[in-house]
Amino acid sequence: MTFLYRKGQMEIIGLVIIVILISLGMLFLVRFQLTSESSKSQVSSERLPYSTMSSLMKVTITDPGCVPSLPGNQLLSLERDLITDCAINLDDSPAGYSEFKCGGLHSCQFVRATMANLLAQTLGSWGKNYTLHAELIPFQGSTYEPLFGDIKSASSGCPEGKPREASIFPIRTNAGMVQTTLYVCN
Fold first, then answer.
1. Is 8 a member of any domain?
2. Which residue spans within the chain are E strands per DSSP?
3. What is the pLDDT of residues 11-69, one digit of tens each?
4. Domain-located, residue 15
5. Cβ atoms of 145 and 103 closer than 8 Å
């Protein structure tokens, strides 16, 4: 009888050891799964400013009132046409000459309004804090001129000292280099 009793104890101990090993395996699996998810989100948050700026610069404007005489049915590009026009005609902003008057606005005003709207619809709707800064660096002279006022998220952008990711997009124009920087707060 003692032999059967001891055999039963050994089987129960074996089952307990198996349950403990399976539990440890599941614990490690969950731990590594959570670690890989946080690293994926970190990588995506590092790429967010760049991918957002890249998308913004590829936006085309389909409003036929902007340029009725654009050759070959081309669409206006935010980067190639409107930001370049804003930089070249910056001194005439906001009411003066602009080659493109979309919605009756100077190209600088239109670019700012369009970018503010697109950022609010994307980063703003995702609950991200951001600040977009655009400035003209003239070929001659060292004075940087802002193209338009900073565009900030509804919660007043990215405060100084707060961790943030940035993406800088330079655009060469006839007036100088336009440097557009998007800061996204962590």
1. no
2. 60-61, 76-77, 130-138, 145-146, 151-152, 164-173, 176-185
3. 888 888 888 888 888 887 887 777 655 444 444 667 888 888 888 888 888 877 776 55
4. no
5. no
Domain count for the chain, please give it: 1
Is 148 inside a domain boundary? yes
Q: For all residues of the chain together, what is the average pLDDT?
A: 80
The CATH number given to whatever domain includes residue 85 is 3.30.1140
> Which residues, in sequence order, are CB contacts of 155 under 8 Å at separation 6+?
129
Q: Domain for residue 147, yes or no? A: yes
- Do the strands 60-61 and 164-173 form a parallel or antiparallel pair, or are they unpaired? unpaired
Domain boundaries, position 80: 45-185
Cα three-residue angle 166-136-124, rounded to 5 degrees: 40
